[in-house]
Amino acid sequence: MGMCLTRTRVPELEASAAKPPTPGGERAAKTSKAPSDLGPTIRRITDPEVKLTGKREAEELLLIEEADAWFEYLEATRAQSAVRYKEVEPWAWARLQQRMRAISARRAKLRPAAA
């Protein structure tokens, strides 16, 4: 009862299998001849009042960052035993100083250059 299955050759299928597929399919290859546009553009802000508000907001964010640095120091050192305080305090102070230096550098960038 051995049945022999033979493969039937279909020339149209073999020809299409030999072509590499196009990205997005055949339809995309036919319709996407033109390049894409440049995309959205963002206009520059020329209003001086808006620039001032941006600077004020940046200064306020730096004040918040400074307060956060101090609260981190207080949280690390508060309610510690004397031995633990001696271990933690140098690290907390160094961390506070590091953050304060970074804040000072960013604050200096906000100030206008002396003419």
Based on secondary structure, the structural category is: mainly alpha
Biggest sheet features: none
Shape: elongated
Q: Classify the helix fraction into a percent range.
A: 55-70%
Q: Unreliable stretches, pLDDT < 50, 5 or more residues?
A: none
> What's the β-strand tally?
0
Q: Radius of gyration over alpha carbons? A: 34 Å
Oligomer type: single chain
Describe how the helices and strands are arranged:
Blueprint: H1 11-18, H2 25-31, H3 48-77, H4 82-110
Give a written overview of the molecule.
It contains four helices and no strands. By secondary structure, it is mainly alpha-helical. It has a domain at 48-110. α3 (48-77) packs antiparallel against α4. The mean pLDDT is 76.
Short description, anyone?
The protein is an all-alpha fold and 115 residues long.
